[in-house]
Amino acid sequence: MSQDEFNMDEIDFNRKRGKGKRSTRRLSLFVIEGLIVLAIVIIAGRWLFTDNSEVSHLQATIDAQNAQPALNAQQLFERGVQEADEERYQDALRSLSLALELDSDHADAYFERGEVYQELEQYNNAVEDFDAAIRHDYSDPATAYYPMCLPHYSLDLFRYALNEFTSAIEFDDENPEYYYWRGLTRTQIGESQQAIDDLLYAVDLGYEDLSYAYFFLANEYNHIEDYDNALYYYGKSITKSEDDCEASDCWIDYNNRGAVYYQLGDYEAAIKDYTRAIQVHPDEYPLALSNRGDAYNAKGDYNLALSDWNTMIQLYAGKIVTRSFVANSKVLGGEIDDYDTQ
Description:
Elements: H1 3-48, H2 52-67, H3 73-85, H4 89-102, H5 107-119, H6 123-135, H7 141-154, H8 158-171, H9 176-188, H10 192-204, H11 210-223, H12 227-241, H13 245-248, H14 250-264, H15 267-280, H16 287-299, H17 302-315, E1 319-325, E2 332-338
């Protein structure tokens, strides 16, 4: 073999090797380009199918949290008060609880959280917080005792409420609200004369809702069988509420005053008051209809008595009225219960 032939073979051989390298490089470039395209498609897909507003909001929240220093107890307390004012009670609970975690002696935070619990009708929690506010030297003990009494009153814990209203009065003996509510509390435990004293003093101090103060005064005078004062204060309550009788429930005054007249044997006056109660609330107070039937019966007008009783039965088919004097008093009352007609 000549030298030229040998060199040609070598050259041909080298060309084959060079062509293989270029093919490998092309394959590698193709794979890389494919991966790049795939990455672009994935990124574009995520961008297209992601709620940009949510991402922006999340990023803004993160940025704000990173930029804003942690709130201290006082700032959390102030935020909780604002949230409570806006009736965002669950948010307020969180803020005030965080404030108390940072400062367990923050009397104002206990008081405000107690008021939030009261709005949520979580009375036991409210009582605990009001008590904690007092123990941590709350600046106005009377206003802490007062809201602590109301949950106890709502829970029928009248002895506790009585003691707390008395404590509030010791700190502020010129507030008519305290005397009014202590008077109401005493009506619940049978202290009629003391209740009358408190209610009268509340009126003297300028208690605003006189129609209710007069109503409860009349009830207590009725309980102790002082019928003249009972009639007098039912009359004053009706005078205060007559302009908006339906809203102020003055039909109860008419019914109860009718019961006093009934006990005194003045059946004509009783019938007149029962009639007025029926006119004011014919659907909401059917007992006045039954009571008027009793008055007609006592007066000897049996047909009218039967008419009232039959009307009541027709209006309230499937119901039965149990009538009795309220709490061993001279006020006629009753309950309407279902009964089996079969």
